[in-house]
Amino acid sequence: MLFKTNGALERMHVFGAWRPVFIVNDSSRMNSVWGTETSFLLPHSENDDVFMGVYFSGDCGDESLGNLRRKEIYDQSLQLKGDGVRLRRALVLAGRQLIAHSQIHCNRFSTSDLNGKRVVTVEQEWLSTKQTAYQVFVDTLGDGRVIYNLMYVAPKNAYSKFIEQAKASFETSMWRSDFDPRESLRLLKDESTEETL
Questions:
Q1: Cα distance between residue 26 and residue 156, in whole Å
Q2: What whole-number distance in Å separates Cα of residue 118 and Cα of residue 143?
Q3: What distance in Å separates the CA atoms of residue 9 and residue 38, rounded to the nearest whole number?
Q4: Which residues pair with residue 40 across a beta bridge?
Q5: What would the 3-class secondary structure string for the chain be?
Q6: Whole-model pTM above 0.85?
Q7: Strand order across the beta sheet in which 79-82 lies
Q8: ∠ at Cα 40 (36, 42), nearest 5°?
Q9: For 88-119, what is each residue's pLDDT tens digit?
């Protein structure tokens, strides 16, 4: 299945049996002053508690925040885990939706490159719900201002069953910088022979 958007994520091949669900949250309720908070969630056909997704907060950070993110996170070579002060600060800076909380344990936080973009990869476990998340935070413009989140979330006992499908899908992601982050994020269809969401 081919997943395409009008935003920074140009396209991504989705491997496995995932169903598309489109969710838009009103940015005014999130006190956003830029764009619309948008989530695309794809539950797995075998288990509704397992899903992949793409998330954009709708926020376009100012230049100072972008520079801070680049300097402290995206331009660094980082490998962190646990719950130290450095990790908690990195979690807050990497993406607005990442939370450093006592009920969330970070198993891994690292920086790398993905298809021409700098990314932060995070694996976290919610201790109260026994859910595990694998998330990739993409610096879409290369200036730290607009961050997209590719995510895979599953109960701890089902996490290993589909994680390789999610990682393989994320590896196919193709990104562009000629997009307007203020424009509502939506799925696109094309005339290709592939199934497109």
A1: 31
A2: 10
A3: 13
A4: 22, 54
A5: CEEEECCCEEEEECCCCECCEEEECCHHHHCCCCCCCEEEEEEECCEEEEEEEEEECCCCCCHHHHHHHHHHHHCCCCEEEECCHHHHHHHHHHCCCCCCCCCEEEEEEEEEEECCEEEEEEEEEECCCCEEEEEEEEECCCCCCCEEEEEEEEECCCHHHHHHHHHHHHHCCEECCCCCCCCCCCECCCCCCCCEC
A6: yes
A7: 21-24, 38-44, 47-56, 147-155, 131-139, 117-126, 104-114, 79-82
A8: 170
A9: 888 888 875 565 566 778 899 999 999 999 99
Determine the residue type at 154: A
> Cα(first)–Cα(last) distance of the chain, in Å?
7
Tokens representing residue 120 in the block: 């932060």
Cβ–Cβ < 8 Å for 131, 154: yes
pLDDT digits (tens, 9 = 90+) for 111-134: 999 999 999 999 999 888 889 999
